[in-house]
């Protein structure tokens, strides 16, 4: 009897958690739908278009431009590490020159978008969640609604579009910084076999598809990051504690989602031979 | 004295006068609001005539804020209806609700200014969003509204750089930016010094008297309430305990206890006394039962708990 009731309790707990997850994903889907509708409304209305462009520019500067330095720095060191880790196992086979090819593929297809998204998540995602959370607590979101101003159009749309645009731009910067890191470690540490013809080998290895798949990933990662941050921010309840919780959960959920979606993308691109 | 108050409170409205009266700006009819299975508002009904000020008051947790949220259309009734300027808010689509929202303003308890904008930008926001006025005209209107609340000098300051009273006045300037027909105030005097509080009250009175704005004020501050009110509503445990003219509540406040529970409860609230039905109710919360239940949950009798 006791074992049965314990099992029943576990099942109930599992079911409740499952429902919570479905509700959470459903809530995000509804927010995305409302944001898409708001975007269509903004495109159709000239006065709103002008103010939305100004808001979007502000968000791109805040989320993107300010993250350029840190993303470039992190990706530069990733390039350095990757080159130094790959050279020793390639050396016995006489393939040290292939360091450039490996860095090109790894950075452009994978590490550029993923590392940029993780850095942006800590830098901008947490900031968006905290900002929106503080606005909820300070009744600012309610004030917008009471003044007949859609919070989705006014707050969510520029942030979401801003993270997508910022992520795509940052991905390009990250790609270049990663390759530069690999080049400098080849030049200063590994030797001429790796650095002579480094850029030519990268250009030879990469296709437009490699570059585009990286950018597509970056755009989707930006959307996930922005959506999670906005959703967590708008869900804040209970003052400062709620704001802190939202920022933490944004970072945790975003990193889990990014790796999961990245895996799905990789499988998809592998199957489709992209 | 109290007899007079009771007779005033219970006096029926003359049918002829009611027939001639214009439709009210706000009509709340049998409003029920259930949150998490608990009725927060239970059959609330009252009217606010156009150009008059209604004060909503009641002990903490009686449902004032929930009622205000229903009045501004942020919440949909579980049952009953809220009519604002002739529109049943519960039945309006979001777009129609936005059109109604442009006709009223609200002053939030904290001011709820947008922290990323200056005071002037806060006031300009509704004008930029809902009118096609050019920037120069908006600038002039913003200056006029800020002058009205005596805040023109702080136009370019950020909300974090101004005091609580200034935030409230800035919030009021933003609320009146679109010249609304109805204004809602959530605790306009809370946390303010007596002079600033009196200034805000005077603004509410001026807006009603000079511009014919209908006002709904939710407040705990009795001095402020009696200064601005034409009519008053007393809420208790989600129900309307009494509605009436300000003078009727003044008679209740100034008179002796009557023995009638509702009247004594209102009287205790109005006078701020620590003795009366509100205090009795708080003290009779089954304290002993609570302690015994807690001891039961701990799995041992109370009398051995200390060992």
What can you tell me about this protein's structure?
The complex is a heterodimer of chains A (274) and B (307). Chain A has helices at 2-44, 46-63, 68-90, 99-137, 140-146, 151-190, 192-195, 198-205, 208-234, 239-271. Chain A has one domain. Chain A has ten helices and no strands. Chain A has 274 residues and is mainly α. The termini of chain A are far apart. In chain A, helix 4 (99-137) packs across helix 8 and helix 4 (99-137) runs antiparallel to helix 10 (239-271). The model of chain A has no long low-confidence stretch (mean pLDDT 91). Chain B is α/β, with parallel strands linked by helices and 307 residues long. Chain B has a single domain (2-304), classed as 3-Layer(aba) Sandwich (Rossmann fold), CATH 3.40.50. Chain B is 43% helix and 20% strand. The longest helix of chain B is centred in the middle third of the chain and has 18 residues, at 194-211. Chain B is globular, with a radius of gyration of 22 Å. The N and C termini of chain B lie far apart (59 Å).
